[in-house]
Amino acid sequence: MRNQSVLLAVALLAASTSFAQIPASPVTSTNNSAPLLPRIGWAKVTKETKPGTRWWWMGSAVNPAELENELKTFKEAGLGTVEITPIYGVKGYESQFIEYLSPKWMKMLKTTVTEAQQLDMNVDMVTGTGWCFGGPNVSDQDANALAIYSDDGSVSQKPSGVIVKRPAPGGAGWMLNPLYPDAMSRYLHRFTDAFATYDGPKVHGQFHDSYEYKSDWSPDFFDQFEKRRGYKLQNELPALFKDQGDPDHVARVKGDYRETVSDLIVAYIGCWTHWSHDRGFLSRHQAHGSPGNWLDIYAASDIPETEMFNKDRDILVSKFASSAADVTGKHMVSSETGTWLAEHFTETLADLKCLFDDMYLSGVNRIMYHGTTYSPPEAKWPGWCFYASTEMNPRNVIWHDLPALNSYATHVQGLLQNSAPDNDILLYWPIHDLWHNPQGMVQQMSVHVRDWFNGQSIGKAARSLWDHGYTFDYISDRQLGKATVHDGHLDLFGNNYRVVVVPSCVHLPVETLRELLSLAASGATIIVEDQLPTDVPGAADLEKRRVELQTLLKSIVLSAPTDHGVRRATIGKGQVLVGSLEGALQQAGVRPEELAKQSGIHFVRRVMDNGTLYFIANRGTQHLDQEIALSKPFSQAALLDPMTGVIRRAETTSENGEARVRLQLEPGGSILLRTLSSGSTALPPWHYWNPAGSPIPIPGTWEVKFLEGGPVLPKSYTTGTLGSWTDSGGAEVKTFSGTALYTLHFDAPTGSDSQRWSLDLGKVVQSARVRLNGRDLGTLFLPPYCLSVDHLKPRDNLLEVEVTSTSANRIRDLDVRGVKWKIFYDANVNSINDKPFDASQWPVAEAGLIGPVTLQPQN
């Protein structure tokens, strides 16, 4: 029998009291006995613990009644936040377009926030339309700028030609210059004026999308450079623009230029955040793509936000957003989720769930769907659609079972938000080695092309630490200066770390080395990979800074290599270790998690009162059933299933004085593990899958009735052999997308004394709500489609399975028939390969309950 913890013990949910709410027995604490925990349970559900969604307003052609209806629909599906992003409009609806920030538009905003407040939902908005920031109030002076270097040695700038992408009516114009904070100040005047007469409830937050500007200059760049770098860039223009001179000197000038670009982007985002705070808004920002230090730029907002695409995703790249939050004491980390996850109308809830898990593993604790398009009721199916997937809207049939996925996310996010990071390592980003390059000007860093990460020591060190089970956050030069030391641990806004790791690097600022040595003198452990750095970055006062660096390096008197091949220097109360990362970490007593030794198993570790919280996901291909030691000692452990809501006590053993916990996880599965450092819990024991026999096919005749969907409901049919409903006969079943009810009457298997069974539905395309003898057993959307059942009747058990497909066959039918549903301006609707979308050549997709359906006895 296949085991999957996320689907364990679903039958228990029928109990009148949820196990998620069972408190431990209260006891009085004494000096001689550890108390039971007062309660192990799920966090309180709030609008922040629920997922949110980007809400596209096409042409801002919205009206109060439908705004209220859509918000209620979102609430019912389990969403807690909407982010308003106006974009291009729909052909034929021009008369309904509303100019962005006009009095009428602000009235629609008031309607939205008022209704959302009544529904206990948040409303965020983009400080603009489409992306990136820009619009009609952006002058040539404030626009994206490219530098022009003339033969006479002079420099001027011109607009780069990049305009706001996908703008809404009233939002078209130049993109703003992200290297020019003064431009941001002027840009925000328009919003200050619009909100001056706004009398509705408070908007929750402002949002800034990922960096897609094209800019390398600003009107005051010379002044900003001299103020920040200490010399005149005007004297180095041949090096900057023509690569003239000694390559090392050229690289130093360009490194200083790139650091100034980074500083200016931080100031640019900081200006927007300060404006937001002055008006009671939070700021949420995506730093990825920007040619600067992502850690500093993410940290310039209240909520750093990352994103991943399709199969082109890397947990360690998304970890830059969560690291920026962790080391600067920010509570929330979000992710744009579902962008180009798959082709339009083919995405499944299982696809989304696995993407969620990658986000959670990267340190994210709130999902924001990309996205949901406002659509009026008169618009024929599939309604108004955004050009990029995922179409996470009520017209897409996967919405039918979306509440189950949102419930899963709410369970996970509630605990991740109500805990603190528990990472042992601060992994310094030696970005100056990346910037020390004589080629090019700004260096774009993409979430897609990742040579800037994988090809540098930071990426190699991060990958090694991750693969070996070490926990870490990235940290920048300026963030390192905020750390303090207490009892040998590094403290950043209440988050504790064991060591700082400096990956192998050549260039290190004097100020950073001084800070590292100061932390060591206070009792910290500093690990330097391979060997100490040898040079400083940048061109200003080069020889003076080199002498300062060498003086500091000489104070690090290293011993002969230890058994770990590591050299050690005592610095005050602390130490500097130089050598291989793993050897130095062993010598420093930093213990990796054994979880990482299991193929495909990944985790994130958090601190909770009296213990530790682990989110664990099986992202591999092998089933896990293992007793695993944890790096933190514990007295007892509980397993929390975010799919079902069940919470029970984990099976634990002790081996050589080391406590171990038993985990079962199928590929794609996930679980939350809560350990107690002292005391115990009165929760009942976890039900592990322990097969007591072979699977037994359930015979009988299935009745299949189509419940909802379109374009029309096919006729009901019966079958003794399960298969795709598209093969059940007739044209209607091949074009249908929606939900069908499968009903079967069956007798309990004979010859078994088992009172507990696993019900395996076999293959399901794509999600299923299951009832047995009138009792709801839950919603399944992830293989294996198994759940626990007990107390089968000897005769005439009734199994009902509501199966929901994707919308693929229905959208295929529209394109086969040439129906003109793609009626949108700008990009209209694109396929995942960025070409015009056309589903007419798709094969008919499987749909329904494919089976085989079996029962297997369990101990």
Under CATH, the topology of the largest domain can be stated as TIM Barrel
Shape assignment: globular
Q: Count structural domains.
A: 3
Lateral arrangement of strands in the main beta sheet: 1-2-3-8-9-10-11-12
CATH architecture classification of the largest domain: Alpha-Beta Barrel
Please name the fourth-level CATH homologous superfamily of the largest domain.
Answer: Glycosidases
Strand content: 15-25%
Query: Class of the largest domain in CATH?
Result: Alpha Beta
The residue-averaged pLDDT reads: 94
Measured as a percent range, the helix fraction is 10-25%
- Structural class by sheet pairing and helices: alpha/beta
Largest sheet: 8 strands, parallel, barrel
Question: What can you tell me about this protein's structure?
Answer:
Helices cover 24% and strands 25% of the residues. The protein is an alpha/beta fold. The chain folds into three domains: 297 residues, Alpha-Beta Barrel (TIM Barrel); 163 residues, no CATH class; 163 residues, Galactose-binding domain-like (Jelly Rolls). Helix 8 links the parallel strand 9 and strand 10.
